[in-house]
Amino acid sequence: MQDVAKTAYDTVDMRFSTPAVQLATDESGAVTGVIAKDADGYFKANASKGVIMATGGYDCNPEMMQAWTRPEDYAYSSWWNPSWGTTGDGHMMGLAIGAQMDPIPHPVMNFRWGTPDSFADFRTWNAVYFGILVNGRGRRFVREDAPFQVVSNAQNAQPAYGKNCWYIFDETMYEGMEDSLDEYKEKGWLFEAPSIEELAQAAGIDAEGLADEVARYRGFFEAGVDEDFARDLKTTLPFTGQRFFAFTTNSNVLATVGGLCIDGNCSVLDTNDNPIPGLFACGNASGSFFAGNYPRHIPGTSIGRAITFGYVAAESAVNGVIGQGPKLDGNAPELTAYAEGPAVDEAQRASFAQMGDWDPYNPVHGSSLAYTPEQLGGIPDACDNCHTYATGSDTVGTGMTWKANS
Question: Where does the FAD-dependent oxidoreductase 2 FAD-binding domain start and stop, copy by copy (predicted)?
């Protein structure tokens, strides 16, 4: 990656395994760089044009998920494809200097097809596409071919946040899934029986409810219309087999999409809607874009905004533009160079190293927070010098450490 970057920009200095841990500011509150940590200790990276937060979301930080998303998005979801670095570092660094964040709860990218211990298993495609989705009472509750977030939200609205939801199908529907049947049975995810009633009993589903639902669904094919949810019956199959299956499923989280509030130039806003000079955000570290949900039926929205707003943030930083977004009056002065000296201040390593036991993955250490511990969802732990949030976990992924609650 370094070689690729240098072919376009021979001045690029890319640092791996070097997390930023705190934003550096001057007396006016302008962001002048970051304090980072590598194998040799802490150092300050000066930023003459500002800092762009492109740190992603916090889907790999269970404590933040629990505090900042809806209970139904967190209580019984699996994770599709988390990056172990998306632990909310950028959110916390921004909050630590007074940045504004999207209102809680934040939206997430929630999909269907979750399994109890995996992100998503596409070997189940045919079975879940052709079968019906029922709750523990054996009742359908959503059009099965609806957009992902519609199905996921419907699952989460079931009792126990959708913990007891099942795809019901027969042997005519699971082509391509044969090699996984035994594996799923061993894990306790899949049940098989010669009748719907016996299947329901094995899976813990209401037998009468499921039998009635399957019979009703078969009748829709005879009538040519799904009278309950208007499913397109031409794209699915009726129950015509002699072996029946129940496959447990839950919703899926791909990413969080709530973050630091920005204006039209990607300047991060403070709690008074004023831009913080020298601080920009893009991608899932930024907010001010999604409402209650990620619209999965508009593919590429998250990636698209990351690319587009990343470009806008870079343009704004390079050109010294702040405070000219749609929420502001457009009369703010241009951004000037805030930091003097080299881009990376190696000479300051010694002083940063003296920070002693400062947790490099706790960027709020020693800072005043714009949000109270209660708003952040944690329990203030006894600490004379910092705010540590005790939520019952030690280290989460790479990037953020939370002190365990004792």
Answer: 10-295
Alpha-carbon gap, residue 35 to 363, rounded angstroms: 9
**Sheet with 190-193, edge to edge strand ranges:** 132-134, 166-170, 244-248, 190-193
Q: Is the pTM higher than 0.70?
A: yes
Strand 166-170 relative to strand 190-193, pairing: unpaired
Instruction: State the DSSP string of 71-139.
Output: HHHHTTEEESS--TT-SSHHHHHHHHTTB-BPPSSBPEEEEEEEBTTBS--GGGHHHHHHSEEE-TTS-
Domains in the chain, ordered, with CATH? Answer: 2-109+254-401 (3.50.50.60), 116-248 (3.90.700.10)
Cα distances (angstroms) measured from residue 26 to each of 23, 208, 229, 311, 340: 10, 69, 59, 26, 11
Q: Which of 178, 188, 135, 129 is nearest to 158 (CA)?
A: 135
Residue 140: strand pairing partners:
134
Of 5, 23, 28, 6, nearest to 277 by C-alpha is 28
Interhelix angle 196-203/207-223, nearest 10 degrees: 140
What is the rounded distance in angstroms from the CA atom of residue 268 to the CA atom of residue 274?
8
- N- to C-terminal Cα separation, the chain: 43
For 317-330, what is each residue's pLDDT tens digit? 999 876 544 333 33
Cβ(172)–Cβ(178) below 8 Å: no
